[in-house]
Every structure is written in C-alpha cells, then in structure tokens.
Amino acid sequence: MKSRTVKQQHVIPGFGLTLGFTLTYAGLLILLPLAGFFHLTAQNTWQGFISKAILNPRVIAAYRLSFTSAAVAAAINTIFGGLLAWVFVRYRFPGRRLGDALVDLPFALPTAVSGIALTTLYAPKGWLGQWLVPLGVRVAYAPLGIILALTLIGLPFVVRTVQPALLDLEGELEEAAASLGASRGQTFFRVILPAITPALISGFTLAFARAVGEFGSVYFIAGNMPMRTEIAPLLILIKLEQYDYPGAAAIGTIMLLVSFLLLLTINFLQTWSSKRRTN
Amino acid sequence: MKIKFCFPLSFVGIAIALTLFASPLTGRAATTILNVSYDPTREFYREFNAAFAKHWKAIGNGDVVIRQSHGGSGSQARAVIDGLQADVVTLALAADIDAIATHAQLLPTNWQSRLPNNSAPYVSTLAIIVRKGNPKNITSWSDLARPGVEVITPNPKTSGVARWNYLALWGFALQQELGPDCAAKLHDPAAAAEVAIAQQKARDFVARVFKNVPILDRGARAATNTFVQRHIGDVLINWENEALLSKNDLDAAGIEIIIPTVNILAEPVVALVDRHVDRKNIRPVAQAYLEFLYSDVGQHLAAKHYFRPTNSAIAAKYAARFPAVNMFTVTDYFESWEKVNQIHFNDGGEFDKMYTP
User: Fold this and answer.
1) Inter-chain touch A243–B155, beta carbons under 8 Å
2) Model ipTM value
3) How do the domains of chain A map onto residue ranges?
4) Residues on chain A touching B232 (C-beta within 8 angstroms)
5) pTM as predicted
6) Alpha-carbon torsion A176, A182, A184, A189, what sign?
7) Element holding A23 (H helix, E strand)
8) Which of B152, B163, B210, B216 to mutate to test the interface with A (most CBs of A within 10 A)?
9) DSSP letter (8 states) at residue A188
10) What is the CATH number of domain A45-278?
C-alpha cells in the first residue's frame, strides 16, 4: 500500500530506471577514480603518510598558500562578481550583452593561456610589470600573481550563480522598502543582500573549489619557489616526477579532505542563511 | 518507412567503415616503431628516422614507420611506466630509463650494458647563455654564485636538464677543491677528510647559485622562454645542443653562448623496451634502429643536430663545431644515478635542504 502511494506521487514514471542510471553513472565517473585514488593512498604506511603529507614544512607551506589564495580569490570574486552581476541584471547600456558574454571566457579559455597572458602582462619586463615592479609591486612570480590568476578563473562562477537570484528579485520589493521609509543602505543590507546571500555563498563555494584545484594558470605565473610560491598541486606533480605515486596520492587526500570539510561547512552556512531568511 | 530507408544506408556505412579499418591489415603492413624521446631531439630524430627507414628497406626489408613522442624526459618515462607502448626509449638521463626498469619491469635493469658506450650513442654537455655583450662578465660556473647575478634553470625535481645543471655546478666545485685527480680522491678512503671539506664547499656553492634563481620552471623549454621571451635573468643554463641549435635565433634575440671549459659529460641514453617489442614481434628492427644510431650515418646526423658524436673519427670531423671541454662524468664524481637521486634529489635530499630552513 505504502509503496503504491509513493509511486503515485511521481508525475513522470521511471524512478527506478533513472535512479539506477544515476548510480551507475556516478559510480563509473566519480566513485571508481576516487576508489583508485584511495587505493594508492593506502599504499602509504601511516608513518610515511604523516611525514610526506602532514608534518613536512614544505608541504604545509604549499597547503597554506593553496587554500588561502583560493579563499582570497573567491572572496574578491564574491564582491566584484556580485557587483558585475548586479550591473548586468539591473541596467541597460550599450555593450551589455557583449560584456555579459565575455564573463564566460574564463570558462572556455585553456587555463594555461590565461596564465601565460597574465605572466606576459605582469612579468618585470611586461606591459604592466615594467611600471609596477619599480614601485615595489611584484605580481608575477609572487603570491599576488597566484591570487590574480585564481580570481580570473573563478569570476564566472560567482556572476553566473548570482544573476538568476537577482533576476528573481523584483524591483517592487525595493520600491516597497523605500515607500516604507527605508534608506538606500537599509534597502540594500536588509532587503537585497539577504535575498541574494545564498547565491553569493554558492558562487563563493564554486569559485573556491575551482581555485583550490587549479594548476595550469598558476604554474606559469607563480615562479614555483619552494616555501614561497609553490602550490600543493605542483607538489603532487613533483612527487609523480619522482615516481612516488603513494606520496602524490597522500597530498591529494589531504587536499580532498580539507576541501570537503570546508565545502561542507559552507553548505551548512548556506542552508542556515536561507532558513533564516524564510523564517 | 524511415527505417526501411535507413537500413540499406547503414549497410553502406558499415561496409565503408570495415574497409577503412581492414585496409591496414590486408594491405602492405608496414612495421611501426614508437620512439619515446625527450624535447630537444625532435629535429634530430625527424631526419634520423627517414634515414633509417631508407636504410632498412635498402638492406632488403619491408617498410618501417617510426612514430615519435616528445616531452620532458621524466614525464615521458612516467608515461611509459603508465602504459605508453614505447618500443624504444631515447631519454635525457639513465635514471629515467632505470625508473622504467624498476617500476614497470619492461626491460632488464642491466639495460645500459647492452649497447656500446653505456647506451649513449651521442653525448652533450652544458652551455651558459648570457645577454649580448655579457654585461655581467660571466666566464665560468663560479660567476653564477656571485650576488646580483640572476640564474635561470628549471627545477631539478621535475626536469632532466636541471639535474645535469645541478651536478655540473656541484662537480665543478669539487674539482676546484680537489684538483685534477678529483675522481681518484673521491674514491680514495685516505682522502676522506679532504673530500668531506670539498663536499661541504660544493654544497655551499650550489646553494649560493640556487639563491640566485628567481623562478623554478618545470622544464628546459619553459626556462628558455622565461629567459628569452620574458627577459628575466642574466644567465640561463641549458643543453649545449639546444643552445647551438637555436644559435641564430638566440643571436637575433641578443644572446650569447659560453661553453664552460670544465663541464659535465651529459649522456642521453637509448634502450629497447623488451616487453613491448617482444609482444609485437619487432625486436630485430627495433634493435637495428638503435644500432643505426652508432653507424656513420647516425653519428653524422647527430653531429649535424649538435649532439657530440661518440665515434671519435666522426667527432674529429666536427671539432670546429664543438669547443674542447674538460668533461667529468656522473660515475666519476657521483658513482651512479641511484646514488645521485638518493643523496641530492629525493625528498629531504640536498636540494630540498637548500630551500627548507
């Protein structure tokens, strides 16, 4: 009886078939490679795992660099990507569609290309670098360059998640707030911002996750100096070049765990903020 | 209706597909050899492969097609370990082929003794490349440790040539300390105290040079780009063959080449990948291919592409092309690649210590 009522709830039939397909697909595409990866990690001894992937100053420096620059880049994107989305949704001006389309470019651009382009601009003899370096601002071959590259590749994630939320937000809401006597600041912070916060958080999460794993563009602009500008994915590559597959997998596992914990926390934050809004 | 219309068409499609797929099987089957090599050999093997195919046919055999794969030496070795079906490997350093032998057991570990001259048909050495007019007045390795000289070299952890660069610096410092009979002293227990001091001096010297390195690129080509295109650094260390090959381009880019007179003998090595050639049944042709590298034709072609020939008669003919250099080998100063990796390049080795406080 019970199962029958459940079945009747679905408008389109085929729950079993689609779920089966989903599981197979996810299994082949995600779980199988992950399993292989954990299998490699398991080839480490506990001692080896800890000394290679945790208690090693060079690896710790790389984790710190990877996660902080990804977080800073995602934060910059959340602010300026949100602003960009606002401009594209709320205003009509010549070139708007072109600008809107350009935002997607970092999605399509091979990351190596963006890395090389940024390096060409900011290298000490580059177009911008030749003016910045004498002022003491080093972008290429410095942590700042890493943040710049990660900001570039993360931008579309924020813009594209915030845009639909802003489109859903009706102009009447702001008018109502204004007619009830709210100042511009109050309207922004108490009406608009709460409504788009969940979208901003998703955008941040996506940009952050993308930035943590990024290798192609960072590799060109970072300079790759141990302890200073060496990101964790590069260390994985270095381990592979030394045929140390378990060591590479160990660093990968730590990155995966930290990312997973961070993303989980952000997800909780998101549900919490949208719940607060509906209450 | 639609199905009836499509049915005969699909047969035509299948027939076309079958003929396309079957033609290599039924036609004159050319033997293919896959040569997995490193970056700077691209131009050399293009010409050598054509010469070998002609030679193989001329001595009464069928057609042979040689396919090439190029990349960083270490990455290429890893690709073979991971399953790239290489029939012969022609890499930048013996350690990379050793890795294939130990990690994937595709060839015996004594592979290096199977061909003449430690399986190195051609050799090379290192070049110091400076800006035109040599503004920092660099004449030998010792100048690279001077404060204020920016040195560009790739990361020894990821690049074959960078390991040679590192060892050349280290070996140079050893020779400065221990004199011309350096190799003998290194193996003489009576000189142990003297050797220990020399090793410490060499360690300091190499560390000082790496203090002058602003960027660690992943491979030789990337380092060349940093130096030539981005105008970073006063000195680039690279293969002699690569530097001489692009001499004209370098000249145009305002760059000069210096070959240090004390230098390391870089031995790019070649080997047959036994498991793959036996499975494909092409051992004779693959073996002949590698032996042809030692023939007069192969040696001339190597010299033409700026590798130093190991055949002394042919090397003499090209003496003008290659400056005379006093060369030491890895075995002279460092025993073996296994030892080198253990002491210098593995995690926590000498190279890592230069960067960790």
Assistant:
1) no
2) 0.75
3) 45-278
4) 123-125
5) 0.82
6) negative
7) helix A15-26
8) B216
9) I
10) 1.10.3720.10
